[in-house]
Amino acid sequence: LGPLRSKTQVEILRGDSFKLGVAPEVRMSGDLHGTPGIAIIGSKGSVQIKEGVIVAQRHIHMTPADAQHFGVHDGQTVSIKVDGPRGGIYNNVAIRANDTSALECHIDTEEANAMCVGNSSKITIVK
């Protein structure tokens, strides 16, 4: 959960969308206009949101210094090459460079499992 945002958003896996009966688009966190809504039900009650369900776009967080080192810039779209026994290339990976970021690649669980990606996996930016 988190970070705190001005609007409620629900990031789900593509596989979850079939069970939940929603058709979310791949979006960056916070880009919610025109996305499907959903009922969120918990032990203390429920809330209905009119929009806010997305599948998170792959992205890499980094500082501006990291971006300069890798020859990329904030907002750029790159590909990443994953090494390993089931390695491959993921396209459409957004660069998010700002002063408060640490170098970290965010892909979802389904994507990580498909290529056997773990915390120690080697990933290379391909422009």
UniProtKB/TrEMBL annotation:
Annotated InterPro entries: PTAC (IPR008300)
EC number of the protein: 2.3.1.222
GO MF term set: acyltransferase activity, transferring groups other than amino-acyl groups; metal ion binding
Catalysed reactions, semicolon-separated: propanoyl-CoA + phosphate = propanoyl phosphate + CoA
Superkingdom as given in the UniProt entry: Bacteria
Keywords, ordered alphabetically: Acyltransferase, Metal-binding, Transferase, Zinc
Family from the record: Belongs to the PduL family.
Protein name: Phosphate propanoyltransferase
